[in-house]
Design goal:
Structural class: mainly alpha
Number of strands: 5
Shape: globular
Strand order of the largest sheet: 1-5-4
Number of helices: 8
Oligomer: single chain
Distance between the termini: 21 Å
Pfam families: SocA_Panacea
Order of helices and strands: HEHEEHEEHHHHH
Largest sheet: 3 strands, antiparallel
Protein name: Antitoxin SocA-like Panacea domain-containing protein
InterPro entries: SocA_Panacea
Helix content: 55-70%
């Protein structure tokens, strides 16, 4: 399995975990915002991301690109992810498998659980407004949101921001 396939597999199990916490199904807006806020919490607390996804500043808030591609495939009837997900309607998805918890750390599950608790009962508009944070506001529409901006918007202190910057620098040097 190459690095991109690992990213996809990890994203599948993150989404399945969130869906399980939401009773098995969700609209994608809520699902993606819960993941975004879990991501932000994990960056602030631990200096690392929950997923290896990249978030883009879309009209209704941040959207994770790998997760969105998975959703589009499911919605269009593709068989690639049929053993994991089923489209319920134009904007909703259902998990049809259990998440493999080997893909999630305890700290990741804790941040996801908190994000589910905080956001599961918010309306579409409330989630949109909440996700239109400093990171989203400083990013041009349809462009990638920086993990540094996400961490700052989530309240990361200067030491954690420096740590994240260093980790991103190290990671980028490995792949040059």
């Amino acid at each position: 399995m190459d690095a991109f396939e690992e990213k996809i597999e990890g994203t599948i199990h993150l989404l399945l975990y969130i869906l399980q916490k939401l009773g098995g199904r969700s609209d994608i807006h809520k699902l993606f915002k819960i993941l975004y806020f879990a991501e932000q919490k994990h960056l602030v607390r631990y200096g690392t991301a929950v997923s290896q996804d990249r978030y883009h500043a879309m009209k209704n808030g941040p959207v994770p690109s790998i997760a969105y591609d998975i959703y589009k495939s499911v919605k269009e009837g593709g068989v690639t992810y049929a053993r994991y997900f089923s489209a319920l309607d134009r904007f909703s998805i259902e998990g049809v498998a259990d998440p493999d918890l080997d893909f999630l750390s305890e700290s990741e599950m804790k941040c996801i659980d908190e994000s589910v608790q905080e956001n599961q009962n918010l309306s579409f508009n409330d989630l949109t407004d909440k996700s239109h944070d400093e990171a989203w506001n400083q990013t041009a529409r349809d462009k990638e949101i920086s993990p540094i901006a996400m961490a700052r918007a989530g309240g990361a202190d200067s030491h954690m921001v420096k740590y994240i910057e260093d980790q991103l620098l190290i990671h980028s040097a490995k792949f040059e």
